[in-house]
Amino acid sequence: MQSRVAVEVADGVAEVRLNRPDKLNALDETMFGELIEAGLSLTANSSVRAAVISGEGRAFCAGLDLASFQAMGGQGVQVGDAASRLIERSHGPASRVQFPVIAAVHGQALGGGFQLMLGADLRFVAPDAQLAILEIKWGLIPDMAGTQLLRRLAPEDVIRELTYTGRLFSGVEAKALGLATRVCDDPRAEALAVARRIAGHSPDAIRAAKRLYNAAPYHGLAEGLALEAFEQSRLLGASNQREAVAAALEKRTPNFTD
């Protein structure tokens, strides 16, 4: 069976492609498993400095595979347990990824596909993309950490309206609401260009910055400043920081170690 998630790594950039174009890259248990496996594998690869996740074919990800949803529904009381297992499995690896991830979104990003997009550090979206917090259609709530990620990006009343109605909105509106980082005609190309730029900087500094921003919502000002000072103290004078300074002064491309 063809892999549902294709992964390539080149020059410090990992490209993760959802690969079920005939199903608009809808999520089923196999794809969840392959996404988790990809995340763990890339986390263990010290050469990876940035990643781009996108979808093959006409869509980024149309959400939960309808056939899988119907199959779970046919199991009666087991539907909750099955869904919970999928959701729980989708949380862990993303939180352990230390490098920046950019979601390149075209076509549809609905329900689980929208939550997958939210989990990225940056979200590059086509202007005519169709997005929705679609879980309400199935009598569910946003999951895959969606409720926690949304509240960091958009006002609460906006989040509630999108959640309660499940309505479609465009990439342009997503940017206006704070849910997209950039609107671009070719999200994948722009995402790869930005990922390559990120990969050209000190991996130590990039990872430290991501740790700080990930931790910021959970700490007060004093603790956040202490963490910032701690991370900076670890960077100052380290080999990659010295190389960054030397390369800048010598006007050359730096040669960082992973």
Quick recap of the structure?
The protein has helices spanning 29-43, 66-73, 78-96, 112-118, 146-150, 156-165, 171-177, 187-199, 203-215, 221-235, 239-250; strands at 5-10, 13-18, 50-55, 101-105, 108-110, 122-125, 130-132, 169-170, 182-183. Helix content is 48%, strand content 14%.
How would you describe the overall organization of this protein?
The chain has 258 residues and is an alpha/beta fold. The protein folds into two domains: 194 residues, 2-enoyl-CoA Hydratase, Chain A, domain 1 (Alpha-Beta Complex); 49 residues, Lyase 2-enoyl-coa Hydratase, Chain  A, domain 2 (Orthogonal Bundle), CATH 1.10.12. The protein has eleven helices and nine strands. The strands form two sheets. Strands 1-2-3-4-6-9 form a six-stranded mixed beta sheet, sandwiched between helices. α1 links the parallel β2 and β3. α1 runs parallel beside α3 and α9 packs antiparallel against α10. The longest helix is centred in the middle third of the chain and has 19 residues. About 4% of the residues have low confidence.
List keywords for this structure.
single chain, 258 residues, alpha/beta, 2-enoyl-CoA Hydratase, Chain A, domain 1, Lyase 2-enoyl-coa Hydratase, Chain  A, domain 2, 2 domains, 3-stranded mixed β-sheet
How do the helices and strands line up, and which of them pair or pack?
Blueprint: E1 5-10, E2 13-18, H1 29-43, E3 50-55, H2 66-73, H3 78-96, E4 101-105, E5 108-110, H4 112-118, E6 122-125, E7 130-132, H5 146-150, H6 156-165, E8 169-170, H7 171-177, E9 182-183, H8 187-199, H9 203-215, H10 221-235, H11 239-250
Parallel strand pairs: 2-3, 3-4, 4-6, 5-7, 6-9
Antiparallel strand pairs: 1-2, 7-8
Helix pairs in contact: 1-3, 9-10
